[in-house]
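Lab notebook page, bench 4
Experiment: in silico fold of construct C2
Operator: M.H.
Input chain length: 306 residues
Purpose: comparison with the prior construct
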Amino acid sequence: MADAFLTALAPAELDALSRARRAQQQVDATLVRGAERQLERKRYAAALAERQFNRVDPDNRLVAGELERRWEAALIEVRAAEEALAQQTAPQPVARMAVGKALDGKVVALAGRLPQIWADAATTDTQRKALLRCLVEKVVLDRGEQDVARVRIVWRGGAVSDLEVKRMVNSVADLTRGTEMRDRVLELARAGTPDDKIAAILTEEGHRSPTCAEKVLPMTVQRSRWIHDPSLLSAPELAARLNIPVNWLYVQIRQKRLLLDPQPTGAYLFRDIPSVIEAVRNLRNHTISRIDLRICQPHEEGHQHA
């Protein structure tokens, strides 16, 4: 709301409004002059019809009747022209009244300082609300079902502005283009693109993070990469299940005591079945020395030697 208010009162907007007002005044003046000339012509025609009627021989009733009819028609047209001129010259509403040049300059100068006044720590919220009420009649908000809220601002005088505001959501799935963004993340990740570069590419393509309206954060890319099938466990999830440090799993993988191929995204995923979980627990307890999960999962006894 503050951004829309300050934009409406920006010097450029006020200058455009001033030019539009001057153009409207010129149009109004042209219409008034046209109405005055039209009234002048109608009055001349009515006066001519009156003179013609006064000059006719009263005994010539047929001609006199026709001239009287023309005179009455001319008078009707005069009254219509007078009403049209009165409408053109009627007092304009306060919103359309011309602003003096000196006052106009002061308003433009003040508008240039409004952002500074608005952001000043000395300006209270009460004062900010008072500024908003100078122009804003009411605001209608439609939160919507996803990440875009629709806002309609009704300004004093009847003008309406429709805005779309990006709001924070809980996850990528709640974004309007969330599925599209996740697929793009996986595509770029399989090509070996670093997370920060992926974030920059997605931002250029118009995507955003759930908690950031302007861009895609590298953290969002990382989380999107690790989204997986519910039947699988990531390393952090498996570590939480076994109540062990997740770094211990990565050490076992690096030292090839736990043989597991990474996914195209770089994540290590484990099948969420009792035999796999028991095998990793036995490796942690030094009951076995190695597990191979590359080709098939461990058998029911909980491990498979390489």
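Observations: The chain is about 55% helix and 10% strand. Confidence is low (pLDDT under 50) at residues 94-99, 295-306.
Next step: discuss at group meeting.
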